[in-house]
Amino acid sequence: MKKIISILTAGVLLATGCTSPQKMYQKGNYDGAIVQAVKKLRKNPRKEKHILTLEKSYLKSNEQDNSRINFLKMEGNPQSWDEVYSIYNNLKLRQERVRSVTPLKIPSTGRVIQFSFIDYDQEIISAKKKAAEYLYNHAQTLLDRNDRESAKKAYFEFKRVKELYSNFMDVDAMLNKAKLAATIKVVVEPIPMHSRTLELSNEFFENKIHEFMLGMQAGEFVRFYSRKEAQSTGITQPDHTIIIKFDDFIVGQAFVKEEVHHLSKDSVVVGTVKLPDGTTANVYNTVKAEFHHFKKTIVSKGLLDFKIIDASGRVLTQDKFPGGYDWFCEWGFFNGDERALNDKQKKIAKLREMPPPPPQDLFIEFTKPIYSQVTGKVKSFYSGY
User: Fold this and answer.
1) What average pLDDT does range 281-285 have in this prediction?
2) Would you tell me how many other CB atoms lie within 10 Å of the CB of residue 133?
3) Domain extents for the chain?
4) Residue 7 above 70 pLDDT?
5) pLDDT digit string (tens) for 218-271?
6) pLDDT value at position 367?
7) What per-residue string of b and e applies to 36-58 under the rule 16 or more CB within 10 Å gives b?
8) What are 165-172's contacts with CB under 8 Å, separation 24+?
9) What pLDDT score does 95 carry?
């Protein structure tokens, strides 16, 4: 039994890696050592090596945190208050974690471990307030620079203020203001449609493009608008404009191919004959047929020009995206003996020519691969914004 238990223990150690409190302490991960020691002491509060590791790790981690706080306060940089606040919270959390397994006594000596517990609440409240005040004022300064990168930084600082105090002054309004200033406003122009011979609408394709862009998570600071939406919201000078147009397209170009096969099959029973002895015998011969096989292909294809320009008209990126869709049907007939045909030919001979889909449906089909290329391009281009 002991051997089995030792194997299981080894398996757990291998699975968790170097997570014993002692190894974490040796590596200088004092908080990690505390977490693991507390976890083990909850199961066995008399495990001496874990008690001693907890005592040493608590002293070391508190010493490090207090040293850092003293340095930051001495330095006097107001932007450090958020870090000070976080450290005080960590000190309090550490205390609560250790307190959950106290009191602890060393079994071999009977010594009771003395942990110092301090009330950090006032320090936490003070640091939190000073951090929020600094972040709010600094974010306003950044926002006043009137450039996008500064507005992004301001947004994240207002966001941190919101995390500290959900109703701090007018933080919600300032968050919205910073977000608007930091956001790239992209207008997607209507897609022009030109067809001299067919009544076609690109409404489906255009709607799919707009639907994708409005729902796409390209980046926190990218917003897409249709031209109509931009006008209604007062955007007269967008940061970027996406221009999409078809360079050329063909819908419903028909190609019909006829193949004529002269078929024959030997040793086919074509009748019977009566023999002198009164019995009958099969008569074999070669059967022939002329099989006509028709294949009709309706080709639809086009080339889309995709371009993004900035407010000055400079082309930021441009691509050509091809798309195509082939619809086909087949049918046939034969003259002669059906027995000369194979099974596939017999099936085809029963088929009749089918009418092709309407041009509008063909247009939608050939734009589907183009849609995939456009959306992939938009995703990759705006992922860095």
Assistant:
1) 87
2) 17
3) 16-118, 121-182, 203-382
4) no
5) 667 888 888 888 888 888 889 999 998 888 888 888 999 999 999 999 988 888
6) 86
7) bbbebbeeeeebeebbbbbbbbb
8) 165/128, 165/132, 168/132, 168/136, 169/136, 171/136
9) 95
332: CB partners within 8 A, 6+ apart: 291, 292, 293, 294, 345, 348, 349, 351
Share of the chain above pLDDT 90, in %: 61
The predicted model gives 57-69 an average pLDDT of 95
- How confident is the model at residue 216, as a pLDDT? 62
Residue 333: φ, ψ to 5°: -155, 170
Q: What is the pLDDT of residue 335?
A: 95
Asked if 170 and 160 touch (Cβ cutoff 8 Å), the reply is: no
Evaluated on CA atoms 70, 71, 72, 74, the torsion sign reads positive
Q: Retrieve residue 204's tokens.
A: 């489906």
For residues 4 and 311, which has the higher predicted lDDT (pLDDT)? 311
pTM, entire model: 0.67
The confidence band for 92, taking pLDDT boundaries of 50, 70 and 90, is very high
Strand partners, 148: none
In the 3-class helix/strand/coil scheme, how is the chain assigned residue by residue?
CHHHHHHHHHHHHHHHCCCCHHHHHHCCCHHHHHHHHHHHHHHCCCCHHHHHHHHHHHHHHHHHHHHHHHHHHHHCCHHHHHHHHHHHHHHHHHHHHHHCCCCCECCCCCCECCCCCCCCHHHHHHHHHHHHHHHHHHHHHHHCCCCHHHHHHHHHHHHHHHHHCCCCCCHHHHHHHHHHHHCEEEEECCCCCCCCCCCCCCHHHHHHHHHHHHHCCCCCCEEEEEHHHHHHCCCCCCCEEEEEEEEEEEEEEEEEEEEEEEEEEEEEEEEEEECCCCCEEEEEEEEEEEEEEEEEEEEEEEEEEEEEEECCCCEEEEEEEEEEEEEEEEEEEEEECHHHCCHHHHHHHCCCCCCCCCHHHHHHHHHHHHHHHHHHHHHHHHCCC
* Nearest-angstrom CA–CA distance, 239 and 224: 10
Q: What is the pLDDT of residue 225?
A: 87
Paired with 284 in beta bridges are 269
Residue closest to 174 by CA, chosen among 138, 136, 147: 136
- Give the separation between CA 88 and CA 120, rounded to whole angstroms: 7
